[in-house]
Structure formats: structure tokens, C-alpha cells
Structure prediction request, 467 residues.
Amino acid sequence: MPKRGLIVLAVAAALSATALTAGARAADSPRIVTGFVANLLCTGTFVTGADPDRLFTETTAGLPGVNLISWAIGYNVDRSRKQVTATLLGGIESRAIHREGLGCYLAHGEPPAESALPKPSPAPALLPEIAGNGVVEPKDPALKRALDAAFTEPAQPPFRNTKAVVIVKDGRVIAERYADGYSKDSPILGYSMTKSVISTLTGILVRQGKLSVRDPAPIAAWRSPDDPRRAITVDHLLKHTSGLAMGSSLMSSVMSAFAPVNRMKFSERDMAGYAVTASLEAAPGTYWNYHDGNTVLLSRIIRDATGTRAADVMQFARRELFDPLGMRSVVMEFDATGTPEGSSQMLATARDWARFGMLYLNDGVVAGRRILPEGWVDYSANPVPEAWVGMGAGFWTGRGDSKGARYRTSLGLPNDSFHASGTFGQYVIVVPSQRLVVVRLGVTAPMYDIEGVSRLVADVIAATNPD
Prediction:
């Protein structure tokens, strides 16, 4: 048997064993691979406007172990029908379809119901414009050097593949840069930075009195008096302390991709419907485990509180968050039930990601209008005691004495900073003491480039505080 065939057999056997151990069906493993690739390339091609071949190469390079099977993954981009089909060894197939304004969705049987999306408000945003029409070139040589360093590639892999950097100081863009093929108008996938947006939308519902973080999560399937999951609160979901046994989303690799949480993402038509069936691996509030199921359940809670359709969610999100901030480029993706894929599937331009970060510089108040409840920013940035990586409610944080916070501050991030983070090195970093927001977007191996972005922030602070 050819060596490549032996490699695939070995990897497939390992994936099947991993899937069985984690509680996922072994038959789902190949479809999770093809589902990830199809959705990635559909979104990148038809929303961002990226080159699919380049995106595939850069992304698979950033996933440990995937290089063993990347040659066996095939894909076809059908530009006329706006869909992408991905296959593994020419067999198992997944298909992602683009819908105007709603990004892409994975086709699982019956198509989702179509609904007309509301248009962004033509009214001026509460947040003033942060830049003019042209790309803002840094005036300070030190800022230029900081951007040069952020985009410089090493001589040997792993490569950084930085796509966009935007630096906002005191409410204005003071420097930005974009890679070839990207621009200030390119909506770029935030991956798990989407979790921070879902946390923000949850906070808005709390401000409106429709939710309380201390109350049990409003999930009907858990309401039975003898169901221990009825103790799970909204706070537990926000802080990833629900205790639900779905595997982990903390690291991405060819092995970890086959936890139940990834069956939810790439094999299920109703993601939240799958997540509510998860059993407990620990009592709620006693164990920290970062996984996408927590945020998908919050996404369903948001959907149910605002209507039943994707259009209802978008109307709420635009009215209460995106339009006031002037975030006109946002594309949120949904599953077939109209629930946002809130764990990873929101796109926005780098400038609009910066606008999102600016909301958190003034306790959630913009131009005198309170968007978030009083104290929500501190709630978001205060560390969860069980989270060794340094996380709060929806944001990673430099506060506290966790291993993760100590490491990031040792690299140059101020200890009052906190940030939204997505795999492959997506960042919206908020530094309240500096009135600073730094956005960095890319496709970076090995996945996060926290060293590079910490150096970028430190360089920016040094350049803007010469004394």
C-alpha cells in the first residue's frame, strides 16, 4: 500500500477512536473535516473575497496534524451557484451554500427558511467616524516600524499571514495596514471573537430586563425538577463553567476537531438542539471548560428572546449594537433553525471590529447612550477563578493572577487589557488606561501568535507615549 494510504488509514483510525472516546459517532469524523473546509472556503470566497486556494493552504498549515491529510481533501468552488463542496478521499462530502447577507451555511437536508433581512439603519451612528475614506498611514516612524514588524514574515515557516491591523487611539485610527487581496472594506472572519459579540448581545438583553445572569438559563429541556442541568445559569454559559460534557474548543488540531462540540458545528442542522442534549461532566460553576456549546446555547437564548428567525436576531443586533457603533459591514452566519453560529461565524471589516472594541472603553456607553448594563465591562474583564488561561465573561483578560494573564503581561500586554480572541490570530485588544484599541486579523500558524500581537501592542504604546 502506498505510504500516503497508510498515513490516511492511521489517521482515520485515530480519529474514529477519538470520536468514540469523546462520545461522537465515528462516522461523523470525515464529515466534520469536509464540513469545516466547505464552510471556511464558502465564507472566505463569497463574503471576504479571498482566494480559496490560498485560504485553504494557509488554514491547513495552521492546524496541527492536518498536513497529514490535507492532500486527501478535495474542494470545488462553484461561483455561479455560490457554493463550495468539499470531499475526503473523493467520498464523504459536505456542501456550504452562500445566502446574500447571511454568509454561508452547511446544507443538512431540508434548507433553512428564507427571510428578508433588515437593512442597516441609514441614520448616523452614535460613535463618530474613526477614519476617512483612505487608508490611514502612520505619521510616526515608530508606528510605521510597529506595522512593519506585524506584517514581516520569518524566513521559515510557520508563517504569520497577517491580513489587517487597525490601531485606534483616543477615538481615531492612527495607523492601519492590509495585506494584498484585503482592504479596509473586506469583511474578515473573527472566529471565536464572535463569542465576545454574543456576550455583548446577552448583556444588552440583561440591560433590557429580559435576562439575568444569575437566573437559570431559559432552556425548556432542562426544567425538569430532577434534571441537574436546571442549575446552569446564564453566568455559567458566559464563563464556560456550565459543566456540560462536549469536549474542548481551546485548541484546534486534527485530533481535537472530533469532540462532540465539533459534531455540533459541522454535522448538525440544529446546533443548539444538539447542545441541549449534552450531559454534565461537573456540577455547574465548579469546573471551567472552554467549548463552543456554551456560546451556541447563548445564541439560541438570544434568538428566542428576539423572535424565531435569523432576520429577527439581525434586526435586534443591528438596532441595539451594530448601527449605534456604525458597524455597517457585519455578516453573521446562522444554522438552519435561525440560530446564530455565535461561537465563531461573524465577519466584519477590521475597522468595524475596532468599533466593537471601542464600546468597551467607556463602560458600554456611546455618545451618552448606555448600550451595556452598568458594570458589564468589568464583569466581562474580571477573571473567572477556575480559568487558568485568564478569561472573564466572553473576553480574555490580563487582570488577576492566572497563568495565562501572567504570560500575556510578560509579553507586553498591560494588565488592565482584555481582548476578544479567535483562532489563527484574530484579536480585538482593549487597553482602557491607554484609550487604545488594536485589531489584528490573520491566518497564523501555530494558530494564535500571541507573542506577535503582544509585541505590536507594546510597540504601539511605546510609540504613542514617547515620554
The chain is about 35% helix and 15% strand. Residues 28-48 form the longest helix (21 residues). The first strand starts at residue 73 and ends at 78. The chain has a mean pLDDT of 90.
